[in-house]
Design a protein that fits this description.
By secondary structure, the protein is of the alpha+beta class. The chain has a single domain, classed as 2-Layer Sandwich (GTP Cyclohydrolase I, domain 2), CATH 3.30.1130.10. The protein is 30% helix and 30% strand. The chain has a four-stranded antiparallel beta sheet. Helix 3 runs antiparallel to helix 4. It starts with a strand and ends in a 14-residue tail after the last strand.
């Protein structure tokens, strides 16, 4: 399956269960990996033949503005909106990462990854990413 990705979308947002997370906010990174046939776009050089990742960004930004307690809920809202907007995707994954999560010790990130459709664990595998 061909993939198109948009990684490292950074937002200051107000997600979390704790009061200070809702008032002070935090840095969140969202990564998208979508699977679809990109043969036409690779030959035509036309935006109509691929996924407009600018539109993906706009969906993510809109959902990141709505505070949630759980990263799972944020990722679920983003996934639902992308699935509705882009039925041509064979599958996709969304990863939402929260910087410096409030735990009892050092932790750089907490993360949730949701997969929809035919995305396997190898597709949308963000294990080599620094965020």
């Amino acid at each position: 399956m061909d993939t198109i990705e948009l990684e490292g979308m950074e937002f200051k947002a107000y997600h979390g269960c704790l009061e200070h997370e809702r008032t002070e906010g935090n840095i969140f990174i969202v990564d998208f990996c979508g699977g679809m046939d990109l043969t036409a776009a690779s030959r035509t050089d036309r935006l109509e033949d691929t996924l407009d990742y600018g539109a993906v960004y706009d969906i993510v930004a809109k959902e990141m503005e709505k505070p949630s307690d759980l990263l799972e809920h944020v990722a679920g809202r983003i996934s639902d909106a992308i699935e509705t907007a882009f039925p041509e995707l064979d599958g996709f994954s969304i990863r939402v990462s929260k910087k410096n999560p409030p735990v009892n010790g050092p932790a750089a990130w907490s993360r949730v990854t949701l997969r929809r459709g035919c995305m396997s664990s190898e597709d949308g595998d963000y294990n080599n990413s620094n965020h």
